[in-house]
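Ticket closed. Logging final result for RHG27 protein.
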Amino acid sequence: EQLDLDDGRWEDIHVVTGALKLFLRELPEPLVPFSHFDKFIAAIKIQDLSLWGRCIRDLVLSLPPAHHDTMKVLFHHLCRVVEHKEENRMSVQSVAIVFGPTLLRPASEEGNMAMHMVFQNQVVEHILNHYEYIFPE
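Final structure:
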């Protein structure tokens, strides 16, 4: 569908953000494919910080090209949002809470959803905090 972004409906940033989240949530498969969900959750639980960081980076690099490239563009934008946290009140933690469950979710909602949410948010937070390392130019 063609949208006119100059239309007054799009002036409220919450509408735009909500539309983006809805689009991502309604994808047949999330940005982080179902096949990678358990791998990312296991990686975020690693205690050795240097191994933890490499494992997350390697998992991102192992994503299918369309997922990887979309993630790179989206996270670049989200990093820019975080840069303006003083004005928009969107810290790394806030962005992770908003986008974690949308970008990274299990194939079925069985299991401990509360614990999944904590780990989903941590994965997004880690990628935001280490964007340059995970997506080198």
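The chain has a mean pLDDT of 91. No further action required.
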